[in-house]
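hey so i finally got around to running the thing on that chain from the lab meeting. sorry it took forever, my laptop kept dying and i had to restart like 3 times. anyway pasting the input first so we r on the same page abt which one it is
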Amino acid sequence: MSLPLAPYTVIDLTRARSGPTCVRQLAEMGANVIKVEAKEQEDFTRDEFDFQNLHRNKRSMTLDLKHPRGVEVLKKLAARADVIVENFRPDVKHRLGIDYEALSAINPRIVYASISGFGQSGPYRDRPGYDQIAQGLGGLMSVTGLPGQGPVRVGIPVADLTAGMFLAHGVLVALLERERSGKGQWVHTSLLEAMVRMLDFQTTRWLIGKEIPPQAGNDHPTGIPTGVFKTADGYMNIAASGQHMYRRLCEALEVRHLIDDPRFGTPQDRSKNRQACNAELEKATVTRTSAAWVEILNKAGVPCGPILNVNEVFEDEQVKHLKLAVKIRHPRLGEQEVQNLPVTLSRTPGKVVSPSPDLGQHTDEILGELGYSREDIAVLRRDKVV
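ok and heres what got predicted. didnt touch it at all, straight out
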């Protein structure tokens, strides 16, 4: 079965995490991804779990983009490609002569996709970008953590990941638009733009309500009771903020007296008395195990769930049913288990088909596809262009 993006060729110039996250989505949907890497790049990190996670379904070639003939090879790739993705600092692509203006002159249909730390223009344009810096500048750390705790970093590289996802979305929209106009375009985002967008609900509280959101810890900032509750053997999440849901929760926990308690009678009351409400509910939740309450509350129609570590996540029956991990075989490293796609297309689903490539594994193959002869390739190798 042909994968949905099989007709498209993507040139991957990315490093670190945000750019590879974008390209991975295109690769898993079947795009022909050519990962262009520096010839002198350190190779020891390739066997580590994170590299294997980010670069599956790609082919790798080495190319010295500081060499004029290296740029010439890249331009030949660009002439045939549909998409180029890069996450250099904004000035680097111009210095190398591989910016959108230069490559679109060769291929007007090219979709050129860029991620930077803070944007392609503006006062912060040339600052080095990093996920945690964007988390702080974008406001996320101010609303994460327990009340009064001080700023807290989110436990995943959320700015990198979301910037990559937004860029992939932009690439697909640009390819759709190209079907109508016949022209490519420059698509770009940044860690900062992604982070501000991801605040969503909290930014709306300020932009429309003029309220600066505080830290709320494990509690939902406005939907009460929603948060973490102690059980006989650990902790669990419960979300029961509406009136009907709150009543169901109290009945399932066998604390019906809390339904009519004047401190908790309305959402506004529960908001004013959040800590007391949670404490009263927790007197019940500590009497049984998390698993017991998950069964009881789900039967009552109350949203709830256990709090799992990563190992437990992949042992969970629903995660197994959704096949969120898949096995592949690396020619050197043996069998690996990696994350599967988080979205399913009923007729043309994406697929993990190959492990992350070794450095330059496909250089000769790709150069041959561009029309270089064995003699030409030997010269490029001799002159350390590839």
